[in-house]
Amino acid sequence: MLLRRTTKGTEELRSRSRELGLRERGVLFMLNAPMEARDLHAALGPSTPALIEALLATGHVEAAQAGAVPPPQTAEPVPTAAAEPSAAAPESRRSLAAARMFLFDVCERMFVRRSPQVAERFRSMLREARDGLSMVAAAQEILDHVEQVAGTERAATVRDRLAELLPDGLEPPITTAPSPLD
């Protein structure tokens, strides 16, 4: 079954109300483009079917018709010899552990002196993140705070580096613009 995030799902990711849990939000992060349910299951583990059913029931995710939504056909830039070495981190560096250590470092450098409580909350989230889904959800929280504290450009830099460290099949979270209420 081909799945895609609905407008309601996108709004959930952008809102600060956080109606859904970390695992459900992680599924929504993964569905930044239509994706087969079996691919989600392979990337996120055995609890994925229950999460998908719950998100379908609440309207955050919908089944997409294979013919109605073609896979994204963006023009791929032709790789140049200079771009190839930096295109992706070696497989040995792509892991949840590497992504976790990078995010721990971001927390230490950016938040410990200014907001020790915030840094401790993020460290706790990272310690509890045992799978790709919860790691992506924790990364979203951290990136949101990086954007608030250091700006969109810094958040984009952190996101790009995180993309190099996450295992294949996991996308770094989108950064959101600060809410007009902030």
In short:
With 182 residues, the protein is mainly alpha-helical. It folds into two domains: 2-64; 91-165. The protein has eight helices and three strands.
Give the termini separation.
Answer: 39 Å
Strand content of the residues, in percent? 5-15%
Considering DSSP H and I runs of 4 or more, what fraction of the residues is helical? Answer: 40-55%
Low-confidence stretches: 69-76, 81-90, 177-182
| Global mean pLDDT | 79
* Whole-number count of domains: 2
- Total number of helices: 8
For the biggest sheet, the summary is: 3 strands, antiparallel
Q: Can you list the strand order of the major beta sheet?
A: 2-1-3
Give the H and E element order.
Answer: EHHEHHEHHHH
Provide the fold topology.
Layout: E1 2-5, H1 7-14, H2 22-30, E2 35-36, H3 37-44, H4 48-58, E3 61-64, H5 96-110, H6 116-128, H7 132-150, H8 152-165
Antiparallel strand pairs: 1-2, 1-3
Helix pairs in contact: 2-7, 5-6, 5-7, 6-7, 7-8
